[in-house]
Structure formats: structure tokens, C-alpha cells
Amino acid sequence: MGQITIEEVAKLAGVSPATVSRALRSPEMVRDSTRKRVLKIIKEKKYVYHALAADLSRQRSANIGLIIPSTIGSIFVRTVFAILEKAQEHGYTVTIGNSKYNPEIEMSVLRTLNERHPAGLLLTGYCVRKEELLEEINRSGIPTVIMWEKPDDPQLSYVGIDNYRAAYTMTEYLIGLKHQRIGLILGPYSKVDRVHKRFEGYRDCLSDHGLPWDDLLVVEKEPTLADGMEAMNRLMSLANRPTAVFAASDVMAFGAMAAAKEKGLKVPADVSIAGFDDIDFSAYADPPLTTIRVNGIEIGEMALSCLLDMIENPSPQPRQICLKTDLVVRNSCRSLE
Amino acid sequence: MGQITIEEVAKLAGVSPATVSRALRSPEMVRDSTRKRVLKIIKEKKYVYHALAADLSRQRSANIGLIIPSTIGSIFVRTVFAILEKAQEHGYTVTIGNSKYNPEIEMSVLRTLNERHPAGLLLTGYCVRKEELLEEINRSGIPTVIMWEKPDDPQLSYVGIDNYRAAYTMTEYLIGLKHQRIGLILGPYSKVDRVHKRFEGYRDCLSDHGLPWDDLLVVEKEPTLADGMEAMNRLMSLANRPTAVFAASDVMAFGAMAAAKEKGLKVPADVSIAGFDDIDFSAYADPPLTTIRVNGIEIGEMALSCLLDMIENPSPQPRQICLKTDLVVRNSCRSLE
DNA sequence: CATAAAAATGATGACGCTTTCATTTATAAT
DNA sequence: ATTATAAATGAAAGCGTCATCATTTTTATG
């Protein structure tokens, strides 16, 4: 309860507040003897530094704001935790907001974070009302990095993956296995750019290989296990059911697997299933899931160091990093030959 | 970049800074016409409120600090996200620190969070150097709630589960299925109270039922899938191998399952496996996992509302809530009869 | 030992907002 | 119209720290 301030410490140590501040922030500016005296008082009186006041005074902040679009599916967990870890190492604190894939909320969360004047901002993808969001970002002048996505705007810094290419690759792999009817299960792609790119990759790949388009093969659901099951059920009850299903997230793929099993279908004997993300369980699933590996940890780490760099070395030109994704072939897809 | 302050807004609106502040924080105190005028300027000039300055001035904060012990295993994800969500609803912002199960780090993270003078503190369990930690907490006078654990100290507020009882229940269930040799796989129980309680529940239950003690049946590893596999391999290569294995976290249980399968053992025909947590995948695993259901979301939500209550209605007596856990019987354990 | 230069410390005014208290303006009552 | 009362606004002093500039003390140099 005893909220001692720097001033009282100064009084007790027989120095000025300025000296106490220096003893704390730039020890080399203060004589050893006095510094020791000050630190002793600080310890004795259990003085607690007031970082907020300091931030206000020196017009900077040791906090960075992070916005994630969702807490379900939790694909971003690894990224979030990687950021947390690295930020902590660098003496930064992280404040998290959840936009729930909702433009309104996204704006309001961004607002709230901005009001705390963070040193930098990390956004996971970005949403439909791009212009507005970007204006807010630009106006604030706060260094910002977009993650998990390669935004169209060339002015933005980002650390992302090529969702389009990855989805294209997976689709092409399935086609290579001679599948002709390939189902697609995805999250809210009409709202989320990142997912929409995956959709486009799938669509273009089919068309490039001369396969016919069928709306019924694409099912949009929430990115949860349960919804993955539902989506799969829908696909499997089609008159002309697909021989392979590409789920644009591993979690949904597991749902699809569960649904298939429930229907008595063997994977991959009766139907092939592919995922996207390569979460921990994928390698241990039954059967092990063929998927696209996305290194969420790396995204987080890169994004953070990128951001720190921008904070410390301001420069107008954006940092842009596109991480590679890998097709990980396991045993959930079989060749039709 | 244009960091307009309240003062400039005031000038432009032809009022005093105080009025601008009121127009923002207590609109009812200001005439409609002037409020509109002020808000118009604010919008025009893209003024951004400076929450830090406000917090400093009014000696409070709309930020709460959250410490989690680990990012691996990610059992706490649901709790963290639940907190995030609810906090956001109530206009609070959340800053997260990771103690990595390390007392030194825990102290330093707590320090850092404290220096930002949060409105309240949420700790996930608490660590070995309890006294020191508690002293820091008490001294700061910041409302604090411990989560996931029922601390020994009766002065502490907490929202937890009875880890001891839950583990006891599961062990008893296995014994009820006539298992005599029951392996135990757990995380770092020597370091983490929460896990240690589970260990004690297991141990006491065995002893209460007159079963002999065997050190070799207890394997301590990191709470990861890979380590779960390793632990299982160790148990399965025992001369006198257990007929059932209780993994004190679902993630490790999945590792155990994977290891069993790799060895050609069928679950539960050849060996029974039980988990703890009931994470999303557990119900969909093959076979569906028998486990202890812990409602991580509820823990988070309760802890937060408990904390908010403490923030708004300070009172010396601690709030203590012990949530119930359920034994969820699925198909990963069989009776030996 | 005197003097110049360097190092350490102090005084003071921000930083952007809130809040109390005083003052002015609007409303109600006579 | 004149008070009395209430509502709206303004002036100014913090909140706890940092940074600039001025001042004092120490060290180095001749």
C-alpha cells in the first residue's frame, strides 16, 4: 500500500529526485557511493518504480499492442506466445486485444490499444474495413506489423505467409494423386482475407488443371472441430461425394476425420483428408495428417524483431517478409491410381 | 503523428481543457451544445485520448496483469482467452507475462507488471518462492486472484480446482476397473504445486486401497506430446508393465496413446490410458479419451469477475472459489474383469 | 597551487489528463 | 425584475517521472 515516490526516496537518501531517477535509469551518471545509498533506501522502503509516469514523461512506452482475430481454433496461440516470450526478453510488455473477426470490434480494440500509446502494434491479418484501419494506424504513426498475411498495400510492413500459394500447392498435390472431386472446408473466408486467399488458391488450381467448378464442394463454417464435423457431413451426404477433402485448418480437418469415422468411412481408404497449419496433434493423429506446415512461432518472432527494429530505427520503407510454408505429406491422403 | 492534446482541442472549441475532459469522461456534466462542439473538433482533428496520462492523474488503471507459468502444453489458453474476452467487455486491457515455471522470472515479471500499476493481478498458480511473491503482492496492495489452484494460504483469493481430489477420483476409477498397476505420467510436479497435488491424489488413493507403491510407475516429464510419448515408452518397457496409465494432462495422454500405437499396443485393449483437462481433441481422439474435465473458461471468467469485484469493492476478506471437476468416462480405459 | 575541464548533482518545467474549488451562466421561484 | 438555486465552466494544482540547463564538486593539467 505504501506508494513511495521517487521524491521521498530522494529525501531519505539526501539527494534530489533527479539523482534517484538517474541512479535507476542511467547508473553510470551517478557516483558509486550515492547510487548505493539510493538503492539501499529503495530496497528498504520497497519503492516501486512507476513505469506509466516514466512513459508519459519521456514520451515513449515499453508496451506493445497485439490484436488477434479470434480465440477459437487457437491457431495463433503459438504466434502469440512466441511474441510474449521475445517481448519479455527485450523488456517489453504485451497487451492483447481480440477483434473477434468483427470490424467494429477491431476498430474499437485498436482504439483502446492506441490510447495506451504503445511503442508498436502487431496485427494478425487485417480486416474488411481496411482503409479506416489503415488510416488510424498511419495517423497514430505507431510502428505496425501485419502478421500471417501478405497485405495488398505495398506500404505495410508484414511478416506473413503466402496463403494463396500454400493452398494452391495442396490442391495441386491432391490433383496429382488423381483426385477429381476435391471438397474444401474453410473458416469465414468471405470475411477473412487470409482464408480467402486459400480459397482462391484452391479455386485457381482447379481451374488451371481443367477441373470443373462445383459450389457444393466448398463449405464455409467457423474454424472449430465441431464445425469441421458438420462441414464434412454435408460433403459426405452429397450425391456425388468428393474423394478428397482439403480443410483449410487442421482443427477443421480433425473434425472432418471424426465425422468420417462416425460415418464408418476409413481415412484415407474411403476418403482423403488434408489440413492446413500443422498443429502439434497433426503428426500424431490417426492417421497422421497431411497438411501445410506454417511456422507460427517463427512468424511471431520475426514480426516482433521486425517491430522492434522499426521502433528503434524509424524509416519510411516497410519491412516485408514472406515466410515459406511446406507441404507435409503424411498418411491421410491416398492416390486414386 | 499529429499528437493533439486535450488542450489544443479546448482551444479550438473555445472551452477550457477541463470541459473537454468532462465532455469525454462525464458527458452529463456538460451542456449538450458544448459537448457536441468539442466532439466535433475531436473528430476533425483526430484527437487520440491518452489513457496513460489519465491513469496517472486519477491514480488508477484500466489494465490488468496476467501471469501464466508456461506457454507449452497451452492448457491455459482457454483461461487466458476467456479473461481477455471478459476484460475487454468491461473496458479493461490485459497485459500478459510468462513466468516459465521459474521463480526468478516469475518475480521479475511480477515486478514489471507491478511497475505499470495495474488495477489487478491474475496469477496462474503460484510458485516455489511463495513468501517472497506474496510479500510483493501484499505490499503493492493490488487486488490479486490466484487461478487453477487452491492455495494453502487462507488469506489469498483464488478461483481454482481441487487437483488432489480430481486425481484421486481418476485413480479410484481405474482401481474400480480392477487395475492394480497404474502408471502416472506428469509434468514437473516437483516444481509445480498444482501438479504435485495431482501426484498426491494418486499416491494417497493407491495407498488407501492397499495397493503397493512403485517408484518406477511415476514418470515426470515436460508437459508436451513428445515427452508424453517418451514417458509412455519408459512405462511400457518396464518388466512388469502397468495395465493402465494416468497422464496428468491430456496432451501427455495423447503422447502416451501415440507411443502405445507405435508399439503395436491397442488402447484400451492392451493398455488403458486416462488424461486430465479434457481439451477439445479429447472427445474426438481415437479412442475418445477418458479424462477429468476442467472448465478452463469458467476459471478465467470467474477469476476475472472476482477480480473486478475486488477492484470495485475493496474488502479485506478473500474471495475463494473452488470449481468442480468431472470424471468424463469415454473409451480409453477398460475393465480388467 | 591555480586553473581548466570533466563529472556529478540540483532546480525546474514539461508530459497529458483529472479534479477540486471558485466563478460564471442559466433556470426557477417570488 | 430580483433573488435564490442549480448547472456549467474555468483556473490551477497535482499525478510520478524525465530531461534540460545551471550549478557545484571533483579530477586533471600545467
* Main interface: chain pair and counts: A-B, 48 and 48 residues
Instruction: Report how far apart the termini of chain A are.
Output: 74 Å
Please state the overall shape of chain A, judged from the principal axes of the Cα atoms. elongated
What's the structural domain tally of chain A? 3
Strand order of the largest sheet of chain A: 2-1-3-4-5-11
Mean pLDDT of chain A: 92
Bin the helical content of chain A: 40-55%
Alpha-carbon Rg of chain A, integer: 26 Å
Q: What structural class results from the helix and strand content of chain A?
A: alpha/beta
Quaternary state, please? homodimer
Low-pLDDT runs of chain A = none
Beta-strand content estimate of chain A: 15-25%
CATH topology of the largest domain in chain A: Rossmann fold
Commentary on this structure:
The structure is a homodimer of 337-residue chains. Chain A is of the alpha/beta class and 337 residues long. Chain A has three domains: 6-49, 434 Repressor (Amino-terminal Domain), CATH 1.10.260; 61-161 and 296-323, 3-Layer(aba) Sandwich (Rossmann fold), CATH 3.40.50; 163-294, Response regulator (Rossmann fold, 3-Layer(aba) Sandwich). Chain A contains twelve helices and twelve strands. The first copy, chain A, has helices spanning 6-13, 17-25, 32-44, 51-58, 77-89, 103-115, 130-140, 163-176, 193-208, 225-236, 250-262, 296-312, and strands at 63-68, 93-98, 120-124, 144-147, 157-161, 182-186, 218-220, 244-247, 272-274, 291-293, 320-323, 326-328. In chain A, the strands form three sheets. A six-stranded parallel sheet of chain A has the order 2-1-3-4-5-11, sandwiched between helices. In chain A, strand 8, helix 11 and strand 9 (272-274) form a beta-alpha-beta unit. In chain A, helix 2 crosses helix 3. Chain A is elongated, with a radius of gyration of 26 Å. Chain A starts with 5 loop residues before the first helix and ends in a 9-residue tail after the last strand. The mean pLDDT of chain A is 92. The interface between A and B is large, with 48 and 48 residues. Strand 2 (93-98) of chain A pairs antiparallel with strand 2 of chain B, so a sheet runs across the interface. Chain B binds a DNA duplex (30 and 30 nucleotides) through helix 2 and helix 4.
